[in-house]
Amino acid sequence: MKSSSYCKEQQHQYNFFKKDTFLSLANTTSILFYTTCLATLFTFYLIYYPINITYTSNIQEYNQISNFTQPENGKSNNKSSDKCDLFKGQWIQDERGPLYTNYSCKTIPLQRNCFLNGRKDRDFLHWKWKPDQCELPRFNAETFLSILQGRTMAFVGDSLARNHMESLLCLLSTVETPKAIQEDKEEDKSAIWEFPKQNFTLMVFWSQFLVQSTEKVINGSATGSFEIQLDKIDKKWSKKLPIMDYVIFSDAHWFSREHDLYEDDKHIGCVYCQKPNVTVLGPGPALRKAFRAAFKEINSCKNCKKVFTMLRTFSPSQFENGEWNTGGGCNRTRLVERDEVAREGYDWETRKIQVEEIAVARKLGEKSGNKFEILDVTEMMLMRPDGHPGVHWGNRWMNGYSDCIHWCLPGPIDAWNELLLEVIRRRQLT
Ligand SMILES: *[C@@H]1O[C@H](CO)[C@@H](O)[C@H](O)[C@H]1NC(C)=O
Ligand SMILES: *[C@@H]1O[C@H](CO)[C@@H](O)[C@H](O)[C@H]1NC(C)=O
Ligand SMILES: *[C@@H]1O[C@H](CO)[C@@H](O)[C@H](O)[C@H]1NC(C)=O
Ligand SMILES: *[C@@H]1O[C@H](CO)[C@@H](O)[C@H](O)[C@H]1NC(C)=O
Ligand SMILES: *[C@@H]1O[C@H](CO)[C@@H](O)[C@H](O)[C@H]1NC(C)=O
Ligand SMILES: *[C@@H]1O[C@H](CO)[C@@H](O)[C@H](O)[C@H]1NC(C)=O
Ligand SMILES: *[C@@H]1O[C@H](CO)[C@@H](O)[C@H](O)[C@H]1NC(C)=O
């Protein structure tokens, strides 16, 4: 109910802006008048805000700007830049701005449409990720679709998996309108999109632990606390594994709650619990076991293709002056400097576990033809507390609460897809 009324409202807003009320009642004189006014305004705008006017979805222009070199028939162009660490770098100012807007992309969910929900500052859109040793090419939807022609890519995990997929959907929409095969308005379901021209399929599977889990219900109400079977894979995504060519995992946030952990049907401990005689394992070991189970599933799958698996590392929540429910928020409009980033504590430990587990999977899986790569975004996103919806996430029932976990669309999360494309492109060459 709630979400369908959101959508109606969004549709209504959208229709309002699409309708050209302006010209429908105009005669020639008024058109001339308004054109002159607009031209004058635009001139002033150019003079005073030269940095802010570069929104365009003209892909041609961006192709020229971008130095993207496509692999020629898989032939390696053994440039030293193909070896540089994409994830060590900094954000540098980029006057071009994003490749899509909330007008050009029709699939931005209300909660991520920060401008629709009243966000006013736009500086946060004018940064690009610059690896220290090389350039990260601007996202190129045509290149992406031509590499992934006939393929199926699945995002699996929590709502940040979905946030990532939604960014990709917007970036790809600049060249082809996706067709919804299976759509859902709620966050906690799965969706399938198709790009018919290139026969590319994009999927997202909601699986907040990757393994099986049951939410505990006390006196008839859901608790947000789960019983997790760390060695039993969540069939929701694993049963579709045979059709997947690319899988991108996103998982961590849900582990840091009070949970009971099971292995081989035996209670092995818990996360954040205070029960007598129960081993407290913490979120880290649980997360590690869940990833291990997911990668084992891929590496032992008999009727699967060669799967290209990526793990997107932890994207930390960035509440300041409190937690989400104790008045915390994220209203920064500036970046955190590289040398101010804290490479320690929970965020960094979580990332470390993920880095270690993808390395283990690679060792076990690559000889059978599977590929494992990391999208190591933790450090770069720690610099971007300015990229969250904050209070601009359009939830009237939770007025005053902030979202400092997900990312505005457009926004810094779009860089994840530039990294995704570059990582895939590099592996095509080898
Ligand atoms: C493209 O490459 C040329 C030559 O390597 C360089 O001078 C130019 O700055 C690059 N452009 C961009 C947008 O990276
Ligand atoms: C590519 O680069 C690697 C490492 O720098 C080098 O060992 C190899 O010979 C190069 N291959 C070609 C074809 O240039
Ligand atoms: C797009 O953002 C602008 C503010 O920048 C807002 O006024 C408009 O309603 C939004 N449109 C859509 C379709 O989201
Ligand atoms: C689309 O790709 C799938 C998987 O590669 C293939 O089975 C199917 O025949 C393709 N369809 C078209 C219309 O090319
Ligand atoms: C469940 O409800 C009963 C009766 O209302 C109450 O006595 C009990 O404390 C409740 N249990 C929990 C865990 O809240
Ligand atoms: C916890 O373990 C100790 C030692 O095994 C035992 O004496 C005690 O009764 C246990 N407590 C509970 C609540 O099970
Ligand atoms: C940002 O939030 C802090 C408290 O969290 C508040 O003191 C400050 O005034 C806010 N700034 C703006 C521009 O809203």
From TrEMBL:
For this protein, the record's InterPro entries field holds:
TBL, TBL_C, TBL_N
Residues crossing the lipid bilayer are 21-48
Q: Where in the cell is it found?
A: Membrane
Q: Does the keyword Cell wall biogenesis/degradation apply?
A: no
Instruction: Please state every residue range assigned to the domain named Trichome birefringence-like C-terminal.
Output: 136-422
Q: GO cellular-component terms in the record? A: membrane
- Main location group: membrane
Stored PANTHER family: PROTEIN TRICHOME BIREFRINGENCE-LIKE 9-RELATED, XYLOGLUCAN O-ACETYLTRANSFERASE 2
Per the record, the similarity remark reads: Belongs to the PC-esterase family. TBL subfamily.
Can you say what this protein is called? Trichome birefringence-like N-terminal domain-containing protein
